[in-house]
Design goal:
Layout lengths: L5 H8 L4 E6 L5 E6 L2 E2 L4 E6 L3 H8 L2 E8 L10 E12 L2 H14 L3 H6 L8 E14 L3
Antiparallel strand pairs: 1-2, 1-5, 3-4, 4-7, 5-6, 6-7
Length: 141
């Protein structure tokens, strides 16, 4: 199974938030909801530098990203989702950072522009990509 598989791409396109799990120094997981971008190769995110999740990524780039959707309570078979295990790589190239920022502004307009107080990514933000090593899905057609 690959991130590029059409059912996975369609499902991710229907989600606005995923859960990013990183590893704490003691090995315990830290799971946080995140806005994200995706394509056939990777998942990308932007966060505030110095947060616990970013400190975790700098120390240990292993991550898991989960996107899921549940049906109505009591219904059977309506749980659908995708999990991506991989490694985070920070995006330091200015051109690549601007391109990611533009994509975030487009996808999450006007919320990102309000959060950033404009259309330029604040300097205290970091961008990172998740390069998949293993992709799994359930309940997708």
């Amino acid at each position: 199974m690959n991130l590029s598989d059409e059912p996975i791409q369609r499902f991710l396109a229907s989600r606005s938030v995923v859960v990013l799990a990183t590893l704490q120094a003691d090995g315990s997981p830290l799971a946080v909801p995140m806005w994200f971008l995706h394509d056939a190769i990777e998942i990308a995110m932007i966060s505030v530098d110095g947060t616990q999740k970013v400190r975790n990524l700098r120390r240990d780039p292993r991550v898991c990203v989960v996107a899921e959707a549940n049906g109505d309570p009591g219904s059977e078979g309506d749980v659908r989702g995708v999990s991506v295990h991989g490694r985070a790589e920070f995006v330091n190239d200015a051109t690549a950072r601007r391109a990611l920022a533009e994509r975030f502004l487009t996808r999450y307009q006007p919320r990102v522009e309000q959060l950033w107080h404009g259309r330029v990514m604040p300097p205290n933000r970091v961008a990172f990509r998740i390069i998949p090593a293993r992709v799994r899905s359930w309940g997708l057609e």
